[in-house]
Amino acid sequence: MTPTLVRRHRPSSTSPDPRARDWAEIQERMLVPLYEAVYERLEVGPGTRLLSLGCGSGLALLMAAARGAAVSGVDQDGRRLELARERLIPKDTGGDGTRLGHGGPECVLEPGAPAFNLITAFDPLYCAGGSARGMAEALSRAAACAEHGAPVVLAGWGPQERCAASGALRVAARLADPMCAPARWRPSGRDDLEDLARRAGLVPDGSGRVSCPYGYADMGSAVRGLLSTGAFDAAMRATDEEQVTKELVEALHPYLRRDGTVWMPNVFRYLIARV
Fold it and tell me: The pTM is what?
């Protein structure tokens, strides 16, 4: 089936900016082992009707579609969605299939369409960003669009001592003004994902850990990739990009290898909950 776009609540942005492009070309692929592990465990394939919350520029959706799944995604970042359209919805196609929306899950609902039978929220910042209450409400709205018993997958950081990127992300949290520009990143608690699932009315039903190293060709790529995550936006509003970049480079220096590459081992955790 050839994918097309449901054009609802389309954002005003029509051309992705460099930071969104950096996300798509440098950073998003770092979570590929997480996507693969979840899809393999849940046997994603033909018959899967997937809704991705915080779908970004669409790499996880593309991987699910390659397995035969029918995919839909929503995101608050219109610039990343433009890139997802480029990947998933070629301009010369005109059938129905993939649906992308700017906002909540209601953006991609089609009257009479089958309910989703898998929901994912892979982006750790999507799960951590904003208030716990707001995220729980978004998950609850998404669950209302799913079959009873459907899995909902949440992802987050593993233990700090096993996440080399936590040092760089602490820079973002430290430089952000907690009163005017609160940071989107904070250390993960052991039961954060379970607590979030229960707030959303979901029932935890298993979890796993996946190694997702951050590997970059050089220091410049590492800085561009990490800045593209959105974790440093509040810090840049509170200070400036030059200051943030300077301190980020210092935090990354221990992971700079002799060949000029940057390698940061990380462990991510995912939770499977049920609607």
Answer: 0.87
